[in-house]
Amino acid sequence: MEYITEPERRIPVIRDVDVLVVGGGPAGLMAAQAAAEGGNHRVMLVESRSYLGGNLTIGLPVLAFLGPRGDQVIYGGAQRFIDRLRARGAASGHKPCKLHMSLTIIDPEEAKNVAFELMEEAGVEVRLYTFVSDAIVEDGVVKGVVVESKAGRQAILARRVIDCTGDGDVAFRAGVPCSKGDAEGGMQPPTLMFSMRGVDVQALRDAIVLHPETYDMDRMPAEQFREGNFITVGLRGRIEEARRSGLDVPVSRTILISGLKPDEIWVNMTRVNGTDSTDPESYTRCEVVARRQMRVVTEYLRRFVPGFAQAEVDKVAPFTGIRESRVIRGKYILTAEDILGGKHFDDKVCLAGYPVDIHHSRGGDCSMYFCDDAYEIPYRVLVPANVGGLLVAGRCASMNHEAMAATRVMSTCMALGEAAGTAARLSLETGVDVGSVDIPLLQQTLVSQGVRLV
Ligand SMILES: Cc1cc2nc3c(=O)[nH]c(=O)nc-3n(C[C@H](O)[C@H](O)[C@H](O)COP(=O)(O)OP(=O)(O)OC[C@H]3O[C@@H](n4cnc5c(N)ncnc54)[C@H](O)[C@@H]3O)c2cc1C
């Protein structure tokens, strides 16, 4: 490869804040809100897109507010976010589900509105259209970031930084060791979500309830589809038939999510294997392929799935959603054994209930491994192994491939974000770095904010 050398240049410092959160997805929103709690600290949230919410805005239900035993495990800021949506008819309750523990349907557009409102109320300064391209590190401690925008290259200094970019962008630039995917680097494939309207949802329900042998559902009893919200995961036989007829359906299971409108269904069925979201060339190809797949999936649904004959595409997510990319190496790396074995951690900061759910990096299938009860996630997964001043929350926290396949759901990411924001705040108040936060104090504070830890 050819290189050029950039001339040294002075860049303006546009802010000097107490806590800087990078990335306004489920983790970042909760991190910023928790860091700003009490109003004693200047908190800033930087987001590269034109709105807040990250994957909360692409048409996904929030999974696993409830745990394997049916009791609610995620509370705190995440629950208050849903409460706010529910108060305006923009979210459902938490519907139990044998496969996903629970699903909570949300309106993607209202999620963006609520995100702005919450940041404003918390006193968080939001900066959109701003991409964090580098980390400022001095003597092994992160002191801020470099941003790029229409205003050029600028610096934001911060006493604590929380990386909620999903891809671990800040941590990676700060020199934190990161990894991607399984032993061969295989990552779960991305999906372009889209919705269809004009669906005869009752016809789909009836088909599943009356003919479970044809409209088979993975692990979920047909009864679950009789009423209320649902996610179909199955209809494998229908896909095989479509494939025999020449349609190149990219996935083995028909995944459909009921919307808040009676004739609306969100479709989770494109899969672009081999995508690396940290490589723009790869991610660009992914967007093009996903659009092509969307046409195939639409045809499959119209021809092979009851209720879709007259349905039309209504909304398409603004970007293809990334299930997996970089994760950092933290002070502890969570494993699937920890999750499935219910390992106890003295520094737990989150309970979660979602199973290990790995969409294969090749082919179009999935493997799931279930736990008996909610599991604990330790604070150390948020703390990078080798730099100070930085916490990392959301799907890029310190987990191996299998563990992140469980903790990646949005309810858990929100809870991890709240833990990181609270820890950053306490570290400033007690005058210690984030790696030395008083754990009992952090746990008590989280509980006082409504978080469930036992
Ligand atoms: C197709 C798909 C289906 C899924 N299904 C479900 C489901 O049904 N239910 C569920 O609960 N979870 C589901 N998940 C998982 C879940 O959506 C994600 O794991 C979760 O949203 C991760 O949250 P996060 O806050 O870590 O990251 P994100 O939601 O990705 O948010 C990251 C934010 O950071 C911003 N950002 C990134 N880099 C930078 C930068 N350098 N500078 C500035 N801003 C930056 C992004 O624009 C984004 O707003 C699914 C994921 C995908 C992709």
Question: Any overview of this molecule?
Answer:
The chain is an alpha+beta fold. The chain has two domains: 13-186 and 324-448, FAD/NAD(P)-binding domain; 194-316, no CATH class. The chain contains eleven helices and 21 strands. It has helices at 26-36, 76-87, 108-122, 169-173, 201-210, 236-244, 280-304, 336-340, 401-407, 410-430, 439-448, and strands spanning 13-22, 43-46, 62-63, 95-97, 101-104, 125-127, 131-138, 141-149, 152-163, 178-180, 194-197, 231-234, 254-258, 265-267, 312-316, 326-328, 348-352, 356-359, 366-369, 375-378, 390-392. The strands form six sheets. Strands 1, 2, 6, 7, 8, 9 and 21 form a seven-stranded mixed β-sheet that branches. A hairpin with a 2-residue loop joins strand 7 (131-138) and strand 8 (141-149). The model has no long low-confidence stretch (mean pLDDT 97). The structure holds flavin-adenine dinucleotide (FAD). Flavin-adenine dinucleotide binds next to helix 1, strand 3, strand 7 and helix 10.
Beta fraction: 15-25%
Q: Can you list the ligands bound to this structure?
A: flavin-adenine dinucleotide
The CATH H-level superfamily of the largest domain is: FAD/NAD(P)-binding domain
**Total strands:** 21
Low-confidence stretches: none
Produce the secondary structure layout.
Blueprint: E1 13-22, H1 26-36, E2 43-46, E3 62-63, H2 76-87, E4 95-97, E5 101-104, H3 108-122, E6 125-127, E7 131-138, E8 141-149, E9 152-163, H4 169-173, E10 178-180, E11 194-197, H5 201-210, E12 231-234, H6 236-244, E13 254-258, E14 265-267, H7 280-304, E15 312-316, E16 326-328, H8 336-340, E17 348-352, E18 356-359, E19 366-369, E20 375-378, E21 390-392, H9 401-407, H10 410-430, H11 439-448
Parallel strand pairs: 1-2, 1-9, 2-6, 9-21
Antiparallel strand pairs: 3-5, 4-5, 7-8, 8-9, 10-16, 11-14, 11-15, 12-13, 13-14, 17-20, 18-19
Helix pairs in contact: 1-3, 1-10, 10-11
Bound molecules: flavin-adenine dinucleotide (FAD).
